[in-house]
Task: structure prediction
Amino acid sequence: MTDTNPQAAHIEVRDLTMAYGTSVIQRDLNFTINQGDIFVIMGGSGCGKSTLLKHMLGLLKPSSGDILYSGNSFFQASESEQGAMRQRWGITYQSGGLFSAMTLAENITLPLELYTRYTPAEITDIVAYKLALVGLAGYQTYYPSEISGGMQKRAALARAIALDPDILFFDEPSAGLDPISSRLLDELIVQIKESMGATVVIVTHELPSIFAIANNSVYLDNISHTMIAYGNPTDLRDNSTEPVVRQFLTRSAAAAIEDKP
Result:
């Protein structure tokens, strides 16, 4: 598990142990996410994928270990420093997380009003641009309930990129989508990542998405409660010495459905 390009390290997980009370979820996690990676957190149901994401977002504190962003410790930083780090992140949730009582424009406007000094006219232009980037030009006045699930996911992505983040976090972005909508969302994630130069971190169990867009990954094992594989998903599928990893990455569509949390 050697980092081949330490100069480009964007996120470093160091000796991380996650636990709820005395119940250890994962221990001794060590991996690096390089600048520009599309990095997948994967593993069987209940292995701690979403828990790891919450630690990376600073929503949970580790039992031990640390997470560094561009060489800076998040958990040893002051509250104001943590806030500054978070402003460089964009986050989309499994359900989309849009505010149902707000229009799409109002949803995207919110972070711009909270964290920037743009004028109302500038914000209006930025909102229109972000919606156009995700294929929703002209949908400013629509409410989330008035658009499809796939469109809601794209609107959530537009809000996530409102502040031009350095890192994009996704929690099961394709959950609930049909295969075509899922593929289109994958393509959009790649396009946004390339246009912004962002690093992308995704929690997912969807094999088509993993192989289509990810260049790096970690596999969390729910038996040993630690990571047992790290690297390019295709390489892990073909060459991993861990049978459970190869099985996970070669399972059938039916097995993939059963694995959903």
Summary: The beta strands are 9-20, 23-34, 38-43, 64-69, 72-73, 89-92, 167-171, 199-203, 216-221, 226-230. The chain has ten helices and ten strands. The chain has two domains: 1-88+167-191+198-261, 98-164.
